[in-house]
Structures are given as structure tokens and as C-alpha cells.
Amino acid sequence: MSVRAEGTAVEPLRFEDGALLVLDQLALPAEERWIRCETVEQVADCIRTLAVRGAPAIGLAAAYALALAEDRASAAELLRSTRPTAVNLAWALEQCRDALDPVQVARRLHSEQRDADRRLSALGADLFGDGTRALTHCNTGALATGGYGTACGVLRAAWERGRLAEVWVGETRPLLQGARLTAWELRQAGIPHRVVADSAAGSLMAQGRVDRVVVGADRIAANGDVANKVGTYPLAVLADRHGVPFYVAAPVSTIDAATPDGSAIPIEERDPGEIVAEGEAFNPAFDVTPAELVTAIVTEAGVLEPPYPDSIARVLAA
Amino acid sequence: MSVRAEGTAVEPLRFEDGALLVLDQLALPAEERWIRCETVEQVADCIRTLAVRGAPAIGLAAAYALALAEDRASAAELLRSTRPTAVNLAWALEQCRDALDPVQVARRLHSEQRDADRRLSALGADLFGDGTRALTHCNTGALATGGYGTACGVLRAAWERGRLAEVWVGETRPLLQGARLTAWELRQAGIPHRVVADSAAGSLMAQGRVDRVVVGADRIAANGDVANKVGTYPLAVLADRHGVPFYVAAPVSTIDAATPDGSAIPIEERDPGEIVAEGEAFNPAFDVTPAELVTAIVTEAGVLEPPYPDSIARVLAA
Fold this sequence. Notes:
Two copies of one chain form a homodimer.
Chain A: E1 4-6, E2 9-10, E3 13-16, E4 19-23, E5 34-37, H1 40-49, H2 55-66, H3 72-82, H4 88-96, H5 102-125, E6 132-136, H6 142-145, H7 151-160, E7 164-170, H8 177-189, E8 193-196, H9 201-206, E9 212-215, E10 219-221, E11 226-229, H10 232-241, E12 246-249, E13 255-256, E14 286-289, E15 296-299, E16 302-304, H11 308-317
Parallel strand pairs in A: 6-7, 6-9, 7-8, 9-12, 10-13, 12-15
Antiparallel strand pairs in A: 1-2, 3-4, 4-5, 10-11, 11-14, 15-16
Helix pairs in contact in A: 1-2, 1-3, 2-4, 2-5, 5-7
């Protein structure tokens, strides 16, 4: 089965014949393997193990999963518990809660995500000058959203307009979403890129070899603090030191008005075994970048600029 | 054959029966395997592949290798070319150049390294308050120096004095010297530690969970700029932002008076295959931390403080 559903975009999820098909992102890029989920528990496992990951994509997976549920309230509780940081999961479940047909709602959310990705990607590309060398982290492409991508979507849109020279891809330890997934998506799109150790971003910026940092988000607080894959915060600090614009690209659904600031965002701790085979390790999956380090938040409803409490409040009210 | 030559310290090198025995650090910690080198080329291979690594240890390996050489000038040239960043390699070769018996000189350098490590470790431990939670990067222990260790030596000395609560060990991508080697050494010394992804250092510092950063050095320029394992510079920038003291621990032989500043330090680029199995990657092995971010440089001749051109000049003149 091909993973390219429309044009060159990969599709992480498909709902067919009463089952949710999940493209196993743990097996990528070595193998394109689909996991057929016929129960909510199977989808929850896929989310927990990161077979499907990326804040928008796990929201969609959870929405589709409700269609497999006998007891929708229990199912929603199980799904919400799989990963605590990304707000999209709770948001998507909320959208489907009272739906007569969850699949119909999930398909609508999926379609809206594609539209949002396209719009925010175009808005983000407007921020790129000619010959931009961008650095990104983790995976925020079609695999992560079910659409065109967020930060990766911005890179694709900039590339299509001839404004992108090259992408530095942070490998993204411990699970290498950058080296495995982003490099794979960029290769398919024909975008020049080089993978680097996450810790090489510092010297690249010090040498003036990075013009823009573009990342996604798992939750944006009302004050503009951003939770994203661990390693994002060091990139923001380095970008600040070197005067490199630091952009967060995310749909409005990633903004959580109920979270006042970053200190209120629960940070998932994952299995130390993802870091070391034996011995002691500490494995936080996300970190928080304070709003003061974020040059702009690129959403489908516009490019939000500081002061964020105001620009965020405006977009949520619209 | 045991790797513990004296007390609990591991020994990365032994010269016995006319051959240099190199503890294969690529096989650690899974296997304690020794490589028997009877030619200069074999030692050069061990240095190039990182079977032996760490600035002081590769200096000692090169010094011992001269004893295996028929043409000492060619041998020195070959050995010097293996790794360009660490100045200790050239320094140790220079010490042996005109020796009647290179082994005797190498053994003296080895013994002096042990003494220097002990002294600088004690001086570094003086900088620790009670209950210090320290973060380190790469491996700077006995494996890296042939002695007690530099940054790791400081940690051991602080632990022996009861001042160290815990060590955060950056795994050190791509070759995981932190996760493989430092964690192994700390475990043997009974020092509590947890391995983290390199990019987790940012949130640890933001949460106030790091009291000191202590790293080694591959070359220190006359102005105090420090070349060390890639990822050191981001740690220094983060430490600066969070008011965490950032210490560099290294013997005086790591200071290169002939290198005016960091821009003159050649940065080794290693095989992209260390980062990705296929596809494009960029793999600088080191980065440069500017002197302004270094709280102190801990040497066997004293703790050097800013302004470095002055404190470094004084220690070199002594």
C-alpha cells in the first residue's frame, strides 16, 4: 500500500472499512508498514508507542478512534491519558464528544487540518528571504499532522517559492524523528538538507550558517509560552543569542486558552530505556520555550507577534 | 585482563613487551577488549577510529607510538594528522621528539598526567558547595586522560568530599561517549548519575536542577576560548542564561599559546555515517565556547579566572 495518498504527501492515518489504519512511524524510513486498529485500545497503543505522533496527528487518531468505541466516555478518557503534553488530543476529542458520527467529524477535522497547514505554511514562507538556510527540530511534516505539515509545511512552501537554500535537520534524540522522519519527507520533496546532532545547532548559529529556526508546537499557553519536543528551548536560547528569528508554526487548535503559561503545561516523561539500554536516565519528551524567545507564532489565522497575550487573545476571539 | 590498573581507575593504555595495548573504547561498556599495537599505523588507526580518545589520552598514545617507529619524523607526522583539534597530540609528540627512549618520556608524561589530574580535580572540587548537582558532557574520566580524569576527576573528587549530590550526563551524540563511557565510569565509582539527551540540558537548567556545568577541553586558545566536544557551546550559553557556573577542567598542556583565539582552532569534521546510515549529514566533532562564557578554567597549576589572556599568560610563564 502506498503511503502517498495525494501528490507527494504522505498520509499517517486512513479510516477504511471500519478500521483505522496507522502508518507505523517507528518502522520508518526503513519500512512502510500499516497497523490496522479495530479497537480503541489498539489506537491508544499506537499513540503511546509513537507509531503515530505529532500533536495534530494524534488528535486526529483519537478522533477516529472514537468511532471504534462502544463506550465513548471511557474511550475518550483512555485516549486523553496516552500523552499529556499535546493539547490537540483533548481538543479533538472534545470536538467529537457529542457527534452522531465521530468518523464524519474526524474526517472534517482532518480536512480542516490540511487547509490550516496550507494556510499557515504560506504565511510562514512569507517570512523567508531568498536563499534562507533554515534549521528545524523533530518532525512536523505530513506525518505529524495528516496534512501538509506545520514547520515542515513552512519549509516546503518556502522551497516551492524558491526561497529556501537548505535545511539543517536536528536528529532529535532520543527517537530520531528528525533523522528518520523529517529527512525522509524532505528527501521525497527534493529539498536539500543535512542532518546534524542536536547539539551542533550552536556552532552552526555561531558560524552564521542558520537564517531561521522553525519548529512546531505541542501546546501553546495563553501567554505565548510554547511546549515542544525536548531540545526546542536550547535552540530558542541560541537563536536569541545570535539574532536568528525563531518561529513556531502551529494550528490555532494547539493554543490552549486554559493554560495560562508554560509552568502549567504537563511535561511527559518517557521510558529511560529510550535513552540507555541499562543504567539510570531521565527522559523528558518536551521542554518549554518562554514567549520572550519566540519571534512569531505562525497560525492559519495569521502570524502572531509579541505581545502574545494580546495577539493570542485576538485570534482566539475571532 | 582487567582494565582496573590502580584502585578503581580504568587504564586506557599500557605499554608492555614492546607493544602498546589500547583499551578499545568503541567496544565499551559492552565488552572490555584490548587492541595490541605493534606499529605506528595501528596506533594511528586506534586514534582515528576513537578506540582511544580524549585529548590527554591520545597525546599519551602518540607518545608511546613513537617507541614503535623506525622513522620517528614520519611517525610524528602521521600521528599528528589523525585528529586536528586536540593540541595535546602535537604537544606530546613534541615532548618525545628528541628523546633517546620515547617510552621513558611517555611513561613520564603519563605519570605527570596522573598528578595533574589529581591536582586539578582537588582544585575543582573546592568550587563545589554541598549537595551540588553537576552536569557534564562527553567523557573526561580516566579513559580520556590515562589518569584520574579532568572534568570527571573534579566530579570524583567532589564526590569523595561528600559535596556532590548527582551528575547529569549528556549522552553526547553521535558517539555516546557520555552514555557509554562516563556513565560506566561513574557507576564504577558509585556516583549517582542520570544520562539525558544532550538537548534536555536546557529544561534541566530552566528548572533549577543544575548547580554546576563541568566539561573538559581539547584545546584552549590564548584568550581563553575553548574547543571541546560538540554540544559544549550550547551548554555554556544555557548556563550563562541561567546563572549556572560553567567550568572547564584541563591540564595546562591543553592550552595552546600559539592559538590566539577560537577562530584559529581547526574543527574536525567526522564521517556523516556517524549521524545517519544513509542520506546527508554534517558532523563537526567539536565546537568553540568563547572565553566570556567560561566562569573558570581549572588546571593543575591553579584555577584561572577572567580576564583569561592575563591568567593564561601567567600560568604559561610560570
